[in-house]
Amino acid sequence: MKTDRPIFAVAPMIDWTDRHCRYFHRQISRNALLYTEMVVADAIIHGPRERLLSFDAAEHPVALQLGGSNPAKLAEAVRIAAPYGYDEINLNVGCPSDRVQSGTFGACLMLTPEIVAACVSAMKAVADVPVTVKCRIGVDEQDPKTALPDLLDRVLDAGADAIWIHARKAWLKGLSPKENREIPPLDYEIVYHMKEARPDVFIGVNGGIQTLDEAVDHLNHVNGIMLGRAAYQNAAILSDVDDRFYGATTDAADWGEIRDRMMAYAERHIANGGRLQQVARHMVGLFTGLPGARRYRQILSTDAVKAGAGPEVIAAAFAAVDFEGAREAVGA
User: Fold this and answer.
1) How far apart are the C-alpha atoms of 42 and 297, rounded to whole Å?
2) 21 catalytically annotated
3) In the predicted model, what is the mean pLDDT of the chain?
4) What pLDDT shows up at residue 100?
5) Which is the catalytic residue, given 21, 95, 108, 119?
6) Which residues, in sequence order, are CB contacts of 283 under 8 Å at separation 6+?
């Protein structure tokens, strides 16, 4: 991954950034790097590969995030995923959930950086796209000033192409996953220091970034920024990404066109045996702050779950919104 151009990414989020979410986000930004939910290597090896790995070609650029701690299994998962055509493979070294800890991967891997390095080396040996790592600044009683640079040096020596750092510790004992996203204090400065010490390495920052103005400020110090909940809960923020981060001259978002594309997508999904709610649930927060947004949310939240619900529900929800203030609700 090149360090001479910034990257704006939407963070991988379990139960949120599935293929329907990514397709929706892609309708708003053509250039943002999108990530899958974390997919466990064992699930890819033994489970329903097509369901876990398939995605719409419109989602590019899209990265696959893997979970695991066994180098051989991760390498096998990378080999299996290769034909699907992901643009990047990312190793999760940051998720603090109990189910991840029980599998000895995610954030707890920060305690064994030598294993992370072995995993990266094995993945790089079989990957034909960049292999990256997403980590925390430390876990539990670790001192980030020593633990983080040690991890980075090891995985970079193993061939990692880029590092995304969630600028908080993860407390594996005593805090829930939700609390781990909010309670540990943010420390952007240590991420900046990691970049200063490694000027030729792509380092991106994640954690607590709420607006595009904040994101732009971070790019004075790092190569990339990653938004999670802020991008998911108000996806309209993505409508300014192409202009502000990629220099793409774009007109104001055409919400009518986006509505029509999502209706067509939902129709295809339903025709293939899916349900409208699987698509619509990701669209609920789109117009936060606009007149009519409450009614928009009500329609998608209640009508999309009904038996036989079709794309017309999306049309009805959009019809409830006053779009005149849409541009004023994003980016600031």
Assistant:
1) 37
2) no
3) 93
4) 58
5) 95
6) 24, 235, 262, 300, 314, 317
Which of 323, 325, 330 lies closest to 257 in space, CA to CA?
A: 323
Structure tokens at 260: 């029509």
Predicted confidence at residue 75, as pLDDT, reads 98
Q: Is the pLDDT of residue 325 over 60?
A: no
Cα–Cα dist 33/26, whole Å: 9
Instruction: Assess contact for 132 and 120: CB atoms under 8 A.
Output: no
Query: What's the mean pLDDT in 268-279?
Result: 97
Query: pLDDT value at position 3?
Result: 79
Which residues, listed in sequence order, are joined to residue 165 by a DSSP beta bridge?
135, 205
Tokens of 123: 């993945």
**Which residues 6+ apart lie within 8 Å of 216 measured at CB?**
244, 245
Two tokens, residue 243:
């202009």
| pLDDT in the model for residue 259 | 97
DSSP state of 223: S
The Cα–Cα gap between 265 and 25 comes to 13
- What sign does the CA torsion over 60, 16, 163, 200 have? positive
| Res 98: pLDDT | 64
